Amino acid sequence: MALGNIRTVNINEEMRGSYLDYAMSVIVARALPDARDGLKPVHRRILFAMYDMGLRPSTSYKKSARIVGEVLGKYHPHGDSAVYDAMARMAQSFSLRYMLVDGQGNFGSVDGDRPAAMRYTEARMASIADEMLADIGMDTVDFVDNYDGQQQEPVVLPGRLPNMLLNGASGIAVGMATNIPPHNLKELAAAIAYMIDHYDNVEEVTVDDLMQFVTGPDFPTGATIIATEEMKEAYATGRGRVFVRAKYEIEETDNTTQIVFTEIPYQVGKSTIIERIAVLVREGRIDGIRDLRDESDREGMRLVVELKRGAQPMKVTNQLFKYTQLQSTFGIQMLALVKGEPRTLSLKRSLQIYIDHRYEVIVRRSEYELGKLRNRAHILEGLIKALDNIDLVIRTIRSAPDTETARIQLMNRFDLSQTQANAILDMQLRRLAALEEQKLRGEYEEVQARIAYLEDLLGSPKKILALIRDDIEQIAEDYGDDRRTMIDYSISGEFNEADLIKEEGVIVTLTEQGYVKRVPASEYRAQRRGGKGVIGMTTRNQDALYDIFHCSSHDTLLFFSDKGKVYSERAYAIPESGRAARGVLMQSILAMEMDEHITTVLPVDSFEDKGYFVMATHFGRIKRVALSDFSGVRPSGLIAIRLDDDDTLGWVKRTHGDQHIIMSTTSGQAIRFHEDDVRVMGRGAGGVNAIKLLEDDAVVSMDVIEDDHTHIVVITENGFGKRTPIEEYPVQRRYGGGVRTLARNEKTGNVVAVRSISGEEDLMLITLHGSVIRSSLAQIRETSRNTQGVTVMNVASGDAIVGLAIIRDDEVEDDVEMADSVEVSESSDVGEVV
Question: Which residue is catalytic, options 120, 266, 444, 524?
Answer without folding.
Answer: 120
